[in-house]
Write a structure and sequence with these properties.
Structural class: alpha/beta
CATH topology of the largest domain: Aspartate Aminotransferase, domain 2
Strand order of the largest sheet: 2-10-9-8-5-3-4
Strand content: 15-25%
Number of strands: 14
CATH architecture of the largest domain: 3-Layer(aba) Sandwich
Helix content: 25-40%
Order of helices and strands: EHHEHEHEEEEEEEHHHEEHEEH
CATH superfamily of the largest domain: Type I PLP-dependent aspartate aminotransferase-like (Major domain)
Number of helices: 9
Largest sheet: 7 strands, mixed
């Protein structure tokens, strides 16, 4: 039976990407060697790295003056690297607290300096995106999280900051068009829309670095990785290769603008059913609903056993909500076909009829 993968991450990937990646494990580049046993400094892999970087720049229309890096440690390490590289000695940073990952980023920043929270939605279990907050003029940078996988909220618009603009786009990068020039640093773990866990994309404006007066550990210094072309240490070759294949798939699909249209169609289909069907209700404020992670509840708990059986028998995987929210979470990442969303909607309608 075909599986419909709604997992929040690691994410669903295009079948053609998985097929090509599996072949590369056995025989990469027709060299009778596995991708994961060749030298990361060999020409075949150097070509992979160059192509991956070029695809990022092309798909996101990255302006001149920005470096594209593939690093390790996930977004969790970026939570620390950002203040190390951007917060001055005795400096200050501003953050929005919109979910579990934003909260962890704040914790890391606080370990290095004065960190103020200018927008906070924890009072309502993060079911909305704060608005109308002021970003102080005396901060070294402002940090926000564009999409919140656990709570199903997404920033539809970004504020204009009087300082450096930093964004964690781990769970919605490449899902919608963005204007990179409005940001000074963007980072994103690969395991949502880009590839398997193991690498982290960083897009950083070169001119903002090296100005903190802070001694930065070598491995945590963005300039270290820029100078070495993301190869200061052995890169995660498989994760970067699969990311490259996924980015090529996205380009062939029509690019970010085309996938944004498809993602909107999937989100509209599911949210319309949640709003129409009296057995379901969404958990996030309507104006802040994520197009990537749709969180919802049953209004009648007595139907839970029946609903769970129905979607499991239909081959749906990964629909259970995060424990801090409960209910259900359907993640609609780029590679999830419209057909899978329609299958879920049909089950929701059948439950209502029963």
């Amino acid at each position: 039976m075909k599986k419909h993968n709604f997992s929040a991450g690691p994410c669903i990937l295009p079948k053609e990407v998985l097929k090509e990646a599996s072949q590369a494990i056995l025989n990469f580049n027709n060299d009778n060697l596995s991708l994961i046993e060749i030298s990361h400094r060999s020409k075949p892999f150097m070509d992979v790295m160059k192509k991956a970087i070029a695809l990022v720049k092309e798909l996101l229309e990255v302006p001149e003056g920005y470096s594209v890096l593939f690093l390790q440690g996930g977004a969790s390490l970026e939570f620390l690297m950002v203040p190390f590289n951007l917060m001055k000695e005795g400096g200050k940073a501003a953050y929005t607290n919109t979910g579990a990952w934003a909260k962890k980023a704040i914790t890391e920043a606080k370990s290095l300096g004065d960190t103020v929270v200018v927008g906070d939605s924890s009072d309502k279990n993060y079911n909305y995106i704060p608005k109308g907050y002021e970003i102080p003029n005396d901060v070294d940078y402002f940090h926000c999280t564009s999409n919140n996988t656990i709570y199903g909220t997404q920033m539809k618009n970004f504020p204009t900051a009087p300082t450096l603009m930093v964004c964690d786009m781990s769970s919605d990068i490449f899902s919608r068009t963005i204007e990179v020039s409005k940001f000074d640093l963007i980072y994103a773990g690969a395991q949502k829309n880009m590839g398997p866990a193991g690498t982290t994309l960083v897009i950083v404006k070169d001119e903002i670095l090296g100005k903190t007066g802070r001694k930065i550990p070598t491995m945590l210094n963005y300039n270290t990785h820029i100078s070495k072309g993301s190869m200061f240490n052995t890169p995660p070759v498989f994760a970067i290769y699969v990311s490259m294949l996924t980015l090529q798939w996205l380009k062939d699909f029509g690019g970010v603008e085309a996938i944004e249209k498809t993602n909107q169609e999937k989100a509209d289909l599911l949210y319309s059913e949640i709003d129409r069907n009296p057995l379901f209700e969404g958990t996030a404020n309507k104006e802040d609903r994520s197009n990537m992670n749709v969180c919802f509840l049953l209004t009648d708990s007595s139907k839970e056993e029946m609903f769970n059986k129905m979607w499991q028998e239909a081959g749906i995987n990964g629909l259970k909500g995060h424990r801090s929210v409960g209910g259900y979470r359907a993640s609609l990442y780029n590679a999830l076909p419209n057909e899978s969303v329609q299958i879920l909607v049909n089950i929701m309608r059948k439950l209502e009829q029963n």
